């Protein structure tokens, strides 16, 4: 069974930093773009950031631009989301996902273009 496994979530004070990671289990995602989404209680799942297979293209939601950085290490088969200057409104479950439409930057923003999802990791930012 193909899975994506997130780790690194936790509780942090406002202004602090966390790095969450995503590792696939059961296959590699060679040629896939990878994305991070988040979902707060009672809200829809929102796009956070995405990165192309080569790493040359990254896109961010306006709400995290300048504070979050997505990266990937294809040799380690791992995708990272470095989160700095965290705010209470960043509190959510963070999901990583794999998108086969690596060539289409426009596809990175829509969760429907992602075929594989992780179970999520909780990030809580206290004020």
Outline the secondary-structure elements.
Layout (H helix, E strand, L loop, with lengths): L2 E5 L2 E4 L4 E8 L7 E7 L5 E7 L6 E3 L7 E6 L4 E6 L8 E8 L16 E2 L3 E6 L1
Explained architecture:
The protein is mostly beta strands. The chain is 0% helix and 49% strand. The chain is built from no helices and 11 strands. The strands form 2 sheets. Strands 2, 4, 5, 6, 9, 10 and 11 form a 7-stranded mixed β-sheet that branches. A 4-stranded antiparallel β-sheet has the order 1-3-8-7, with no helix packed on it. A hairpin with a 6-residue loop joins strand 5 and strand 6. The relative contact order is 0.31. The mean pLDDT is 96.
Q: What fraction of residues sit in β-strands?
A: over 45%
Residue stretches low in confidence (pLDDT < 50, at least 5 long) are none
What's the mean pLDDT score?
A: 96
Largest sheet: 7 strands, mixed
Computed structural class: mainly beta
| Number of helices in the DSSP assignment | 0
Radius of gyration: 13 Å
How many E-type strands? Answer: 11
Shape from CA axes? globular
The proportion of residues forming helix, as a percent range, comes to: under 10%
Oligomeric state of this protein: single chain
Give, in order, the helices and strands.
EEEEEEEEEEE
Termini, distance in Å? 39 Å
Structure, briefly:
The protein is 0% helix and 49% strand. It contains no helices and eleven strands. The strands form two sheets. Strands 2, 4, 5, 6, 9, 10 and 11 form a seven-stranded mixed β-sheet that branches. Strands 1-3-8-7 form a four-stranded antiparallel β-sheet, with no helix packed on it.
């Amino acid at each position: 069974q193909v899975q994506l496994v997130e780790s690194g979530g936790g509780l942090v004070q406002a202004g602090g930093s966390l790095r969450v990671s995503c590792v696939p289990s059961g296959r590699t995602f060679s040629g896939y773009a990878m994305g991070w989404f988040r979902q707060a209680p009672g809200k829809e799942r929102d796009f956070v950031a995405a990165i192309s297979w080569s790493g040359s293209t990254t896109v961010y939601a306006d709400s995290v631009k300048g504070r979050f950085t997505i990266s990937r290490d294809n040799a380690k088969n791992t995708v990272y989301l470095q989160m700095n200057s965290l705010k209470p409104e960043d509190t959510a479950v963070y999901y990583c996902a794999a998108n086969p439409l690596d060539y289409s930057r426009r596809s990175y923003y829509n969760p429907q273009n992602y075929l594989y999802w992780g179970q999520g990791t909780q990030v809580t930012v206290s004020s």
